[in-house]
Amino acid sequence: MAEDWAAFRRAPRRTVAAEALAGALTAALGLVPLLLVHPDRPVLAVLEALYAAFLMPLRRHRPVLAVLGTGPLLVGPNVWTLAVVPLIVAAATRRIAPPRRAWHAVGAACAVIVVLTAVGSLIRPGAWLEELAGNGLSAVLLVLLPALAGILLGRRRPLVSLLRERNAYLEQARSLTAAAARMEERTRIAGEMHDLLGHRLSLISVHAGALELAAARQAPPLAGRAELLRTTAGTAMEELREILGVLRREDTEPESEGHRGTREDITALVAESRQAGVTVELDWSVPDTADPSAPTRHSTHRVVREGLTNVLKHASGAPTRVEVRGTHREIEVSVTNEAPRERHHPQAGNRSGLAGLEERIALLGGSFTAGPLPDGGFRLIAVLPARPNGITLAVPPPATGEAAAGGPGAPWGGGAPWGGGASWGGAAPAGARAPLSGEVLTWPRVLGAGCASALVILPTVTFLIVLLTTAALR
User: What CA–CA distance (Å, rounded) separates 358 from 381?
Assistant: First the structure.
């Protein structure tokens, strides 16, 4: 009793309320008809109705006792309590494991019915053979068949649980296999980039250093350009190392990415473009209290970088204006260049950089437009949400522009990191253990148990309808 009381106190309120409602409905089903159809032994009929209400919650915590307790209901004078016997038996046997133990309880309940029928025949002599046959038929239809249905449903529960566990296991195995394949491919790409691009950039840096020394002696006016070439090659080498680090790590962000998109970073990009010969102005109108997320700041850096790179490639020498405006809700970035004042043969391009920007900004929920102006210039403009909802860009794609990255700066407005055994009716623990054989966990078996139990219970329902209708018409 102490254990039952402890289990009752631990049970959820919904379960307690459902059990109380089931007991009340059972008592009402056994008592209300007695007001219309008076039994021969009213006191015993009332006690039987209350006894049936007591068995209802017992089927959950003491299923064996609940099955044994259905015996007196079949031989009692209150015929209306027979309606809850199949429910009690089916619900109790579903919770008894193994099935052999459930059948032992059902056999004991049938023995109780036989004993009570024999004792009743001794107390009230009469046609005891007919009464024994009637109680035997009731036992078959109201106890044996519901017990069979409950055992089938009881076998279905572990099958469904094992099937869920197997699915969770296979899903985790699939994700781990995909992650391993993805990591292997990223490592291979990182190795090829290191061998090819790293070697070429190292050669450029070495030759740029030699050119800087030669220009300092022979052509001092060109020394600044040679120094810019050397520093640009060195910065490109550092960025390549960062990208290789991203490729070799799973879902991580390089430390320097946290400084991208700050005011200092955009100012450094503009300054480098000026050193390369571009006449560019910066208009920064973002309040200091604004705190955009890291993906928004990183995308701001990419937009400005791509715009200035396109000016260097396609409109070198054209006056350019970079505007960064923002509020607490959104950031607007634009790069506008006028038509080149000198005749210029632009380099061929495939617009892959603009396509990459459009895809990145669309993932953040922003808008991006780029196109020529009527006066011959070009403008690209992006509107980004300051705090994208549910967006996390764990691995930023490689840069599409050719301009060097700006120096690190303080975080923009304070900065922020990138924002961004199974039980019945519960989620199975992923990968808890290897699943059982696939022959046990097949849908035909799982569905078959439920369909078979439904077919088994049909004679019980038909018998109850006929029995209760007959009792009401008497």
Answer: 10
Q: How far apart are CA 396 and CA 405, in angstroms?
A: 15
CA–CA distance, 41 with 314 (Å, rounded to integer): 104
Instruction: Answer whether 260's CB lies under 8 Å from 298's CB.
Output: yes
The Cα–Cα gap between 318 and 43 comes to: 105
Tens of pLDDT, residue by residue over 401-457, are 333 333 333 334 333 332 333 333 333 333 334 444 444 445 455 555 556 666 667
Average model confidence (pLDDT) for the chain? 75
What's the burial of 473, exposed, middle or buried (CB within 10 Å: 0-12/13-18/19+)?
Answer: exposed
Averaged pLDDT for residues 271-280:
83
| Cα-trace Rg, the chain | 40
Which amino acid does the sequence have at 337?
A: N
- CA–CA distance, 76 with 266 (Å, rounded to integer): 90
CB of 381 closer than 8 Å to CB of 369:
yes
Sheet order of strands, 378-385 included: 280-285, 320-326, 330-337, 378-385, 367-372
